[in-house]
Amino acid sequence: MTVPIATYRLQFRNGMTFDKAITLIDHWKALGISHLYASPIFAATEGSTHGYDVTDPNAFDVALGGREGFDRLSAALKAADIGLILDIVPNHMAASLENRWWRSVVEWEDQSPYAHYYDIDWSRPLTIAELGKSFDEALDDAEIEIRLDEVAGNLALGYYESNIPLHPSSYSAVLDGAPGTLGAKISALAASASAQEDEAFHHTMQTLMTGSSESDRKVLSSFLAGLPVERVKAAHAAQAFRLVHWKTAASDLSYRRFFEVAGLAGLRVEAPDVFDAAHRLVLELVKDGTVDGLRIDHVDGLADPEGYLKTLRDAVGPDVYLVVEKIIEEDERVPASWPIAGTTGYEFIAALAHLFVDSSQAKALDAAYADFAGSKGYAAILTDAKQLMLDRNFEGEIKRLVALAGSSVGEAYDAKALEQALKALITAFPVYRTYGTRDALGEDDREILDGAAEEAARTLSGDSREALDAIVAVLSGATEGDAFEFRSRFQQVTGPIMAKAMEDTAFYRYHRLLALNEVGGNPAEEEMSIAHFHAAMQRRAAEQPHAITTTSTHDTKRGEDARARLYAISEAPDVWAKAVARWHDMNAHLIQTLADGPAPEPAVEWALYQALAGAWEETSAMPDAEALEAFKERFSAYVEKMLREAKERSDWSEVNEDYENAVQAFAGGLLSPNNKAFLNDFLKAVQPFAEAGFVNGLTQTLVKMTAPGVPDVYQGSERADFSLVDPDNRRMPDYPAMASLLESADGFPFDTTALASGQAKVALTAGLIAARRASPDLFQDGDYRALEVSGEGSDSVVAYARRVGDAAAIVIAPCKVLALLEKGALERAFDAIEVSLPEDLADRSYRNVLQGGTVDAGRALHMRNISGAPYILLITE
């Protein structure tokens, strides 16, 4: 397998096209990256901002430049000797009429050749959750009519801009009594229509319509628009789909969706013909050498991840680089049987936090947060969020699981007992999912299931307790038929419920330390240590040494440098708490009292100050009015998302305008030029945390580039990245400015100006990638060894070595430096530090990569003798 040196994640769309990407190749060459790591580039819904709503996996998106544009980019990358890794989406496609496969299913029902491509329950009508009210209400309000869709070549139920195609078998009843001859001709043509000849039928229909006179078409269209309500209702009833209110999607959807997004329909790639159809183009690109690697989006959403990955590996061969997007909980492992390089690296972000969070102050931070915001703990918040998902957001999925459970465990248990047992089991699930197929669960999965069942049993009694045992027996044993279907769907449901409850609900309710509210992390984790980081990296080196190592993605909750700054709050929770109390008093006049309480409530106010502290780029001076206004607009979008994702006093489905307006007014007031007393105090208080954050950010970069794994640079994060959650983190970076900073850098400038501008980080990034290029085997396959650090300040230093054969690298970097910075220059703070070296690393000469020259090491390294401390990378000569 070809392992990248370093990748660059690029988000296409939002102004980024294939031709625009070509203009960035010189910048990537200057950085030294080996592979472009591209977001989805295949055809997606019109106006898509991310590309995961694929409409055709076998066509390049015309909005990006189409096939011609992709070929130009591919040729330019080849000329620059830069490889290409594509992000593919096997789990779902857009449930949109722009998707030819989905449109065929809507029109031809289960007769469509694509009906089995999606997880659809054909025992009931296909639900299209698109209406803003019930069908009858929309019909009575004249929002629905039957139309002649001349562009698509069919009759359709029209709802605003949507034209939902009718099954041709219903045309005759709809057109009964139509004036002129066009209606009769359409009826005759439709009578012999077949789903197998779908394209030919529509082409003939289009020819028939365009061949008729404009007056004939107008007469027919007028007739259709004037059909009585009962005729339209009858036409709707004759279809195998039902138009329903979009709010009913959570409780009454007839197909598997991605998470809780009705607009993304689950794809059945476990079926061989579906796999082939969905991968035709990407496999062509792999086989002709255009594409070197694939990133598999949301692998846990598949019915059989291992089976899919083995099929994919067989199709692409042994040399193609494969990674999967998967959240790994703390003690979880990626199954060793998966033929991949590893994950996309969320667990690395969680491990990094152990370097920067001061556990000795955890109880003080807990107390400060509880005193200001309330004492409800994270575990209770997560449980509440899971129960909300089970009762409301995933009500339909639970109904289906209950029905499948009933047919799997027999008739001994009623639906209520099965539902209670299932909900308790899913609530107790500690990971996203297990990976059972038709055989009995493997040992690791059985341990997870048994642990969840034991916890769930404590909350159940009577019939529901007995039902739990029956459910666990089915989930853990060999399965066939309904039992196999039950296990598959159960495993596909636990992940979305965990994700939506944790990442997209609990993370927006619990605000103790926002830096820990990160994908793959634990916001309430208190036992954090450098030793834990070392253990995680040793495991990483052994289990997935070629996985992606990331610090930012398009899904992370904030930019990596915002996190790096906010980590420092853990070192001085008392200072932070006093500042928040002071700001609360200063801004009390901005807090509004509503019927359901203050807006913002204390927990949200605490969160707003932290989010503001993380996202404010330049803290050493007040920005001008224009810059402040631009920042206010970005922050307002974040506030909206934060409030709605929390699902406490507002929600995406039930917007509480009074509450949101009040909190937005508070947030806007914080950033008002007239609020000078607060702004001046805020910047003064945040400045020490910002200075510590710059140190943490460079350490984060140094570690990412030298720890086990393939480092990824998320677009723009080569320079300091203080972005907020998406869509803020998907904005187009200022590439000319970054290129200029890198070009003008003289070595590795770590002065105040270079830190603030991001020049220090971009220069460090390029230098470290160059070091990886010079010693690829060392960083790709070297082992990982923790090095013993002693002397005053040793708790603020992380040191480790990589070794393969005779080659070795030693990495030393600062962490938890807030108190040290208050005492003066960081370079002198570590003069007493000594790093002990094992025998095979001692008594050797090393090249000082960052500052030049050589370092002759004995049995220990004394940092006072090394030029350029505290950031040190030494590699054997």
Topology overview:
Layout (H helix, E strand, L loop, with lengths): L6 E4 L7 H5 L2 H7 L3 E4 L3 E3 L9 E7 L5 H14 L3 E6 L3 E3 L5 H9 L17 E6 L3 H6 L3 E6 L4 E6 L2 E4 L5 H5 L6 H10 L6 H14 L2 H12 L3 H9 L3 E5 L3 H4 L4 E2 L2 E6 L5 H16 L5 E4 L8 H12 L4 E4 L17 E2 L2 H11 L5 H12 L4 H16 L1 H15 L5 H14 L14 H15 L4 H15 L4 H22 L27 H14 L4 E2 L10 H8 L5 H14 L5 E3 L2 E3 L2 H14 L9 H22 L10 H14 L5 H31 L3 E5 L20 H10 L7 H6 L1 H16 L1 H6 L1 E4 L2 E2 L6 E8 L2 E8 L3 H6 L2 H4 L4 E3 L7 E5 L5 E4 L2 E3 L9 E5 L1
Parallel strand pairs: 1-2, 1-20, 2-5, 5-14, 7-11, 14-15, 15-16, 17-20
Antiparallel strand pairs: 3-4, 6-13, 8-9, 9-10, 12-13, 18-19, 21-23, 22-25, 23-24, 24-29, 25-28, 26-27, 26-29
Helix pairs in contact: 7-8, 14-22, 15-24, 16-18, 16-21, 17-18, 17-21, 18-19, 18-20, 19-20, 23-25, 23-28, 24-28, 26-27, 28-31
